[in-house]
Amino acid sequence: MNRPYLQIDNVGMVFDTAKGSFTALVDVNLKVARGEVISIIGHSGCGKSTLLNIVAGLTRNTSGVLLLDGKEIDSPGPDRAVVFQNHSLLPWLSVYGNVKLAVDKVLSARMDRRQRHDWTVHNLELVGMGHALDKRPHEISGGMKQRVGIARALAMEPKVLLMDEPFGALDALTRATLQDTLMDIQAKLGNTVIIITHDVDEAVLLSDRIVMMTNGPSARIGEICEVALPRPRRRLELTENPEYLRARGAVMRFLYERQRHPKAA
Amino acid sequence: MSVEAEPMPQTTGMLKLPATAVLLAGLKRRALDVARVIVPPLISLAVLLAIWELAFSGKGASLPPPSKVVADTWELIAHPFFDRGGLDKGLALHIFESLKRVAVGFSIASLAGVLLGVLIGSSSLAYRGLDPIFQVLRTVPPLAWLPIALAAFRESQPAAIFVIAVTAVWPVMLNTAVGIRNIPQDYRNVARVLRLNPLEFFFKITLPATVPYIFTGLKIGIGLSWLAIVAAEMLVGGVGIGFFLWDSWNSSLISEIILALIYIGLVGLLLDRVITWAGRLIGGPGTF
Ligand SMILES: Nc1ncnc2c1ncn2[C@@H]1O[C@H](COP(=O)(O)OP(=O)(O)O)[C@@H](O)[C@H]1O
Ligand SMILES: [Mg+2]
């Protein structure tokens, strides 16, 4: 078998808190192939963000090793671009300026001024934001902000695109169009994507594999569900598809039978 | 990117009449808006002046009524720029001298305040070391600095400027520090993913994220500067609105004192507005 593109090996995370140490993750093992879309699902507080931040390098794992394309992950970097849940655009920069900041920093060795400008505009057009280059973040809707956040991440040409509940704060219709945009882009560019979600349908629709996490503390990967649906996927055609229903059922049973949320009544 | 250069729609002619009506309605609404802002203060001002006039127009009143203030000081109101040499100058020239001192002192305070604020905002060691000292120093009233400043500089001009600077520096510094401490973790994470170096982080994240806080500090600072300069000038003398005030008192020209007070208030308001405007210009519309 090929060497996996991203390899998470026995990763554990113990936080030092005021009330003593808190074990968030134990023995997380995962291999991700290049071009694969992985979603991570689990009840809130189980450690999904912690795991994603470890892959991003924003949080240092307390045990285990992570390898991306043969190199150990020990600090954040643009090869693991993150799309944050609350968009985290810089409010004093325009839509264009937010993406350009990333492009200037990450690609200035390879591209001259003209090319960096074109690349910035190209990525914003890719997410359908070419019409709003000069708008400030507070002038656009939540869905548009997430599009810009995705453009900023894509513009860095990351090896892995990391998304922490990117559509969690959006209404259902906006969320559906953003999911479609993401699938289109991923089909075109072949990105490797790890996306956190708490929405079962979103997980099944988007992913090649769904990683299900047990409840914390000491959360681990409980099950992994393959989604053998051909791409491109159309949400309407999937509603009756047996494979879709099987995957959906598997995730539902995991979440609501075996890992009933302790606080949920 | 390109602006669409479509021909004007054919219906323009047909729309002419309604368009004029819309324009008129818009003007009317604007006029109403302006009236809503201007009329109430005008009314309260008129009432205030009337009460003042009534209360102090009797014989033996300790203060002159507004009509007498205007009559007494008409020469000063009408000729703000006269200059008979020495300290005998128009009010505008006095105010201009005071503003020059404020400009110098406030600039020093702004620069020092932002630098110190950045220092104690970004280093917790510096914060722990310096904050207690600053907390003590900032409670010292402006004029209490004057004797020590006169002793140190041996001249009134730099002493007055020092008093302004030391008065205005604290709010600028403390607000800057708060701004830096309040930079959202998200922005820091973005910077870390992009691998911004400390210099890039300072100019691309810290400074713009802190601008609204800095301007809040500057706004408080400019107000305190203006308070301090008038008081300092009363003591150190030389051309300036504070000196003018004190000189009028010594000559028992109460009307001139009242006129000076009004000018001081108006200039103070103007200074506040200038900083607000500069903040909006630099920090964008969301700054205040
Ligand atoms: N920096 C931290 N210090 C202490 N505990 C933390 C820290 N970050 C997260 N945790 C804890 O780890 C657990 C997992 O958090 P998180 O990864 O944010 O969950 P999720 O994203 O799945 O909702 C939670 O119990 C949370 O309180
Ligand atoms: Mg989370």
From TrEMBL, chain B:
Its main location: membrane. InterPro entries: MetI-like, MetI-like_sf, NtrB. It is found in: Cell inner membrane; Cell membrane. Keywords: Cell inner membrane, Cell membrane, Ion transport, Membrane, Transmembrane, Transmembrane helix, Transport. GO terms for cellular component: plasma membrane. It is a multi-pass membrane protein. The chain crosses the membrane at residues 37-56, 102-121, 133-153, 159-180, 201-218, 224-246, 253-271. Probably part of an ABC transporter complex. Probably responsible for the translocation of the substrate across the membrane. Belongs to the binding-protein-dependent transport system permease family. GO terms for biological process: alkanesulfonate transmembrane transport; monoatomic ion transport. One of its GO terms (molecular function) is nitrate transmembrane transporter activity. SUPFAM superfamilies: MetI-like. It holds the Pfam family BPD_transp_1. Gene3D superfamilies: MetI-like. This is ABC transporter permease.
